[in-house]
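User: Okay, second chain of the day. Same drill as before: sequence in, structure tokens out.
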Amino acid sequence: MKDKIGSKKRISQQKLKIEIMKKARRGIFDSNPLLAALHHITCKACGHVYEMVYLRHLKSGKFEIGETQMVEMIYTQFTIPEHATEKVTPIIFKFKCDKCRTETICSPISLEYLMYTAKKPPKLEIMYV
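Assistant: Same drill. Structure tokens below.
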């Protein structure tokens, strides 16, 4: 029974991964500055700095979808903090350090963030007449 649930979860995660790759390749995330910018990830073993653009990894499929977790969020509105619990599914990027060959894992974005970004309407461009 447990194996059936695990295999169904892997299949749905694989489908989500393919969908993210398709959207990334179609350019849906191209205007997102967080995804398109160059980031520096530091190897925890030796301190070597690895340069990474999240969007390249999304387009190439070099990522995994993690397990959904419940996370407590704090929102501030008019200086009054509000607590809420939300589901967060991490997008996991892995790389091997060029210097010491240690695998480093980072998950700076979530599936929910990507889905929100994909559904957000594009910015209107200013047209001069």
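The longest helix spans residues 2-25.

User: Thanks, on to the next one.
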